[in-house]
UniProtKB/TrEMBL annotation:
Spans traversing the lipid bilayer: 57-74, 94-111, 123-144, 150-175, 195-216, 222-242, 263-285, 297-319, 331-353, 359-379, 407-426, 438-458
Segments for region (Disordered): 1-21
Protein name, as recorded: NNP family nitrate/nitrite transporter-like MFS transporter
GO CC terms of this entry: membrane
Signal peptide feature range: none
Entry keyword set: Membrane, Transmembrane, Transmembrane helix
Main localization of the protein described in the UniProt heading: membrane
Gene Ontology MF, one: nitrate transmembrane transporter activity
Cited InterPro entries: MFS, MFS_trans_sf, NO3_transporter
Similarity comment text for this entry: Belongs to the major facilitator superfamily. Nitrate/nitrite porter (TC 2.A.1.8) family.
Protein's membrane topology: Multi-pass membrane protein
Amino acid sequence: MNPQSSTATAEHHSPTAETAAPTDRLVVEEGRWITNWQPENAEFWEGPGRPTARRNLIWSVFCEFLGFAVWQLWSVTVVFLPLVGFDLTTSEQFWLVSLPPLVGATLRVPYSFMVAMIGGRNWTIISALLLLIPTVAMALTLGNPETPNWALFAIAAAAGFGGGNFSSSMANITYFYPAREKGAALGVNAAGGNLGVAVAQFTVPIVVTAFAFGALQPNLPAAGLFWIPFILLAAWGARKYMHNLSHAKNDLKGSLSALKEKHLWIISLIYIGTFGSFMGFGSVFPTLINIQFPEFSSIQVLGAALSLAFLGPLVGSLARPYGGKLADRIGGARVTITSFLAMAGVTAAVVLTLSMANFWIYLLLFLALFTLTGVANGSSYRMIPVVFKLSVDPADRVGHERKASSALGLIGSIGAYGGFAIPQILRISNESTGSFDIAFWVFAAGYIALAGLTWFVYMRPGTVFARANV
């Protein structure tokens, strides 16, 4: 809860100074609560405001980066489980990579409210320390092949704590920046987090083989142990350098109002196809390579294993900012539609070229698919504030801003369920037909349908959205 007393501050300011709301210095109370945060005040922002916001952004990005890394640990760890004696069916492996996205998506809504309830700094510390649960559990159990499957599923579900970090981190940074710089700050925050997926998939194969110390089997407990010092560093940094903002408030009314807005649900469907595809394919790509091209599941480099699966999330993360920039130039709906149609073509090409049994073509197609998900991710996210601005009474400026702000968090939560849906569709296809072909045709059809939906609602001639080039 926000501080109730006017305790002496770290800068030794008095209650009188707090009341006067000085613009040349921070008023910081016990527990690092800032009580005079004024980002829209130019004098304050160019004085103590900007460096304070930047410092909070840096540690927020680091904590969110670790959240994404832990969220996706099972996506790459699962391919090593059979090598050390775990008896898992293909279906069970798909469940292990599906559970973290499912739990993470579900946690995003409550996480987004925690910043205003107990403070951004305080919640960042707690959410970082929660990452110790799945990582310590992995370290304690993955060395024993007799670990029951239910325990593996529970630990995989706990990795979903990392997925919730995105919403709270984005909500926290929103309060720190003025409107004119909010978009850039949120873009940096999101991109930094997304990179955690690629880094986890790059790092884990190297760590579990390098720390095997000559043993024939990978050292799977190292997949969890490796992250523990970084998590502790993140919690320490958040405690020492971040701040709570006393003016941060939850907008429950805005959230309830946004839920009644049909465009929230339309864009959520679109976002399942963009961000959900990035998370879903990111979760399952190492497993797909392991099943269809086992000889390329890992490549030995200087005695350590390297999985090329990390390249997919890497290019997707790097492409996201360009999707937003392209949307600013030619319109978010246009970029999103083009991306969906291209994604449909690429997924169809994956099926049509599988008979060639060429890994490099397979990898190239998936890199193209990840790039397109990143572009569409950025462009569809850019559409949200514009759509909500056009869908309410023009005189109600505050109303559209509140709805748009609430919608950003809700859409991000709903879109993350794509990370669960894609592995499950692939699992069902494989169980029913013995191949993934049907799943990829379903994805292609879904992307075409989403392109049609985006065009019909946001680019159809004569609509207010088409005239505004949403």
